[in-house]
Amino acid sequence: MAKIGLFYATDTGNTRKVAKMIKKQFDEGEIELFNVKGARAEDLTACDALIFGTPTLGDGELPETLTEFLPTLEGVDLSGKTVALYGLGDQVGYPDEFVDALGILYKKLKKMGARLIGSWSAEGYEFTKSKAFRDGEFVGLVLDQDNQADLTEERLEEWLELVKPELLGETVAS
Length: 174
Hints:
By secondary structure, the chain is of the alpha/beta class. It contains five helices and nine strands. The strands form two sheets. Strands 1, 2, 3, 4, 5 and 9 form a six-stranded parallel beta sheet that branches. The protein has a three-stranded antiparallel beta sheet with strand order 6-8-7, with no helix packed on it. The relative contact order is 0.18.
């Protein structure tokens, strides 16, 4: 059985809440949660696949705990490791930097050789610019707990249907 590590940074607690919602969608023992505030390189390497979650703060910044954690990734070989991303943002309050932290994290992990999965449609969102918007879609699941909290559960379930088989290392018959 594949072990998935879900690493999240949180500021207001919303990203942690979503991490717990994700964990409930997996069987016991398949996924382990790590707040990046206390995570170590060994926690990453012990996992077969990874999920990273981050809010976007202020004018499109990473949370401080994630900024402090990123150097930990330097010593970790992510070549070919399956990684899915989710990000939280406020499209009404920050339409010019909507979920930018997700885009910053994506760029960093891609540079490190991670096999990123789980891109997400921008349909249903209203924003001007986003570092997480590439090639017509978001680089991971995007949730807006400030303005669209009522859509979170549905979006999460749909996204997990897409990424769960790959995270668990299951081959999907076509």
